[in-house]
Write a structure and sequence with these properties.
The structure is a single chain. This protein is mainly beta. The protein contains no helices and 23 strands. Helices cover 0% and strands 43% of the residues. It has a four-stranded antiparallel sheet, with no helix packed on it. The two termini are 22 Å apart.
Amino acid sequence: MTGQPGNASNKLNCPRGFSIDWSNTLYIADQYNHRIQKYLKDASYGETVAGDATGMHGNASNRLSHPCDVIVGSNSEIYIADAFNHRVQLWNQNAMNGTTIAGTTGIAGDALDQFQIPYGIAHDPVENAIYVADTGNNRVMYYRVGIKNGTIVAGNSTGGMNAAQLNGPLGIYFDEISKSMFIANYLGNNVVRWTLGASNWTLIAGDFNGASGQTANRFNQSTDVILDPMGNVYGTDRSNNRVQFFLANEYESNGTTIASLLNFPISLVLDSQLNLYVSDWLNHRVQKYLRY
């Protein structure tokens, strides 16, 4: 995973969201190569497991267009936020084509079966369902696999700064224990928690009113959020080129910078040993940091 863009099997071109399975295999949304790359643990070369290996984009079932996130399931199936096709695709292991399980291919909108640039995905294996950050519609949607229409679980189609609205949600994390969504509220410059069934969010980190900044309690464009098993929160602070860490139950206090000297960090994931992986977007690479 080198620092120069390209479409060879050892190169990425602006990697976005990614996922990791039980064997610490990485699945990376290689955004501008319009494909999903699979990297075995410690491998230098990847394998294309969805989309066109040469980087061609399109809206056919075997193509992707600017994929922004990928989640791997228990049977090595992958769920892909196929952003510019305004859909979520399901690719089974070793499949040559994907199946649209949410959204309407090539059509942007705010109906319950439509997206406008879907960005982040979270998977609920118990419910066989997905949550999708519908970024252009400023909302998070819930879909049972196999059911066309979704349900709005956070935000609405109007972006804003009050606690009943989202503003460009990107990365999302579903916390099974608290039955809530942790949301990187990109244009709100904060990370929020929206309990399922609630009508508004509570602040986790950043400024309540959306002010950006470089101090330890501010973000400048938050793009992703994850939790570890202890409930600690990790968030990408894109335009400050850093990753911030917030202790469980002390979320609104100052964060600790645990990764820096990045170039627009976009997404995060933890492996089984709680080592941290960061998609270093404009450096066209994924960085690994040992457990904090």
